[in-house]
Amino acid sequence: MSYRTIDRGAAATPEPVARKIRGLSDRAIAWIFVAPTIFLLLAINIFPLIWTIRLSFTNYKANRINREPEWIGLRNYERILTDSDIWLNMQATAHFLIWTIFFQVLIGFALAWLINKKFKGNDLWTTIIVLPMMLSPAVVGNFWKFLYQPQIGLFNYIIAFFTGKEPSSFEMLGQVNLAPWSIVIVDTWMWTPFVMLICLAGLRSIPDYIYEAAEVDRASKLRQFFTITVPMVLPFLMLAVLFRGIENFKMFDLVVQLTGGGPGSTTELTSINLKREAFEKWRTGYASAYAIILFVTVFGLASIYVKALNKVKER
Amino acid sequence: MSSFSVTEPSSRTKWFAGTLVVLYAVITMIPLVWIALTGFKSPADAISYPPKYLIGGDSDTSFTPTLEGYVNLFTTRTRQTPEFLDANPPETWADEIVRQYDMVIVGPSKFGERFLNSVIIGFGSTFLSVFLGTLAAYAFSRFKIPLADDLLFFILSTRMMPPIAVAIPIFLMYRQLGLSDTHLGMILLYTGVNISLAVWLLKSFIDGIPTEYEEAALIDGYTRFQAFYKVVLPQAATGIASTAIFCLIFAWNEYAFAVLLTTANAQTAPPFIPTIIGVGGLDWPAIAAGVTIFLLPVMIFTILLRKHLLRGITFGAVRK
Questions:
Q1: How far apart are alpha carbons B46 and B101 in whole angstroms?
Q2: Which architecture does CATH list for B112-275?
Q3: Could you report the predicted ipTM of this complex, rounded to two decimals?
Q4: Which of A83, A278, B150, B252 is least enclosed by beta carbons within 10 angstroms?
């Protein structure tokens, strides 16, 4: 018997005794330790959620404090779900979501795969690649706006340099057909490293012996890639997609700084629209209902997705 | 060669992979380098075509570096009459710079204040999240608390709400409590947003510390509290540090709450930087200077603490 087990056996008995003799009971400690956190969570997370639900059934306007809000039942929900403009916002959000995830998964996985080849100095270059995702999205949106300026911006200059077009012949932020892509480009620039890091964690979790066994069985490199690498990384990749999906569904700061929702409302994602309703038109009740609908949508989609993810993990 | 490994890529593969990754890294850095350069240009050079990317020299793609952007970022200036300018010769190098536009410096700009607000709110909320988070994580890890996991998961899931949605009731609540546009209000808000993740991360770190150590300490006559801060805390230091980094970066970068809930007193830098206006439109060199100063700490931080940070990102994700 090792000395460790003896030790554990010895600790098991006198521990409750020691507890009674000195200081507060475990129960008291547990409460003291948890109480401030619970209080803060209730105050900042739960209570506002409940308040939002309550407001969503009223026609309250936050800029008119003195007017008594009226209870209007489900009318806010009804109006939102039948409003065709909101479906346009949803479409803009879907476009943004689908393409950012597509590019980030593609480039992120490729980068992780290349970095995992363990070339000299890969640590340093990984750190450099990761830098954009550490920055403030609003500030990033702000300086990309400068890069996207039609006549003077660096982005237009570089594109013009490689395609031979006039740099003033297109406006990334001003043209209806280009603006949705301008936000996809910046988000991809910023968040590809996140997908890359998670894929890298996945790649590094694959034990070498699996590849060695495959090599013994004379499986080709291509075959190894599709039967070992891809399935083993898939749960990680799906997790990265979940995180990016949730984040981009509520995207606000980067896009609001970059395009402000324009031109027209081509890049008006749901969060930007929500901000307009809540803090510019001051339709608090309506915006609350909108917020609840968005929350339920993300929560629902995420739950379905997590179920699928768990199935993949079990395999 | 004693050990041949089939999983070790050939040197040609490594060279190929390395080149592509370096190429991507260089491309990804272009925007950041460009902004850093723009901070040292004059307003005219910043918006010239073709873009000026060489420092010094006479060609039409080169510019002479100047601190104009930085001076404009930190000061407010007014235009003055020639008589006034003649009577008051420039005193400092900053005066010299603004003098070429017939202007004089009349005082500091708001940038310093806003930057300080970012520091106060960032560090304040990080300290509070980590302090409360560690206590709660310890309790969740060591004691039986009913519904702990469900509760934590539900609270984490409220982070799926768009920040604007949370901001509506917070706005109303703060208005009633007098917390609007105060440092305390922002610190509490960021702590509230961060703490669920902080507890989640810290709990997994503390779960990894064997309970035997504390039990031994308890037998030696320590109270539970002493065992916690003398035995558990030192061992959880790495976890606490990486959690702190995440909380700090979130609070430092946050924009949506800041722009909606603060106007002057407690406004942080992210909502302020885009509003820097010069003569005849946005003052791009000053904005670029502000962006550089604001982003630099995070970049240095990332490079210095890359081990903790990179592990933390994947760790936080993979645990769930």
A1: 16
A2: Orthogonal Bundle (1.10)
A3: 0.86
A4: B150
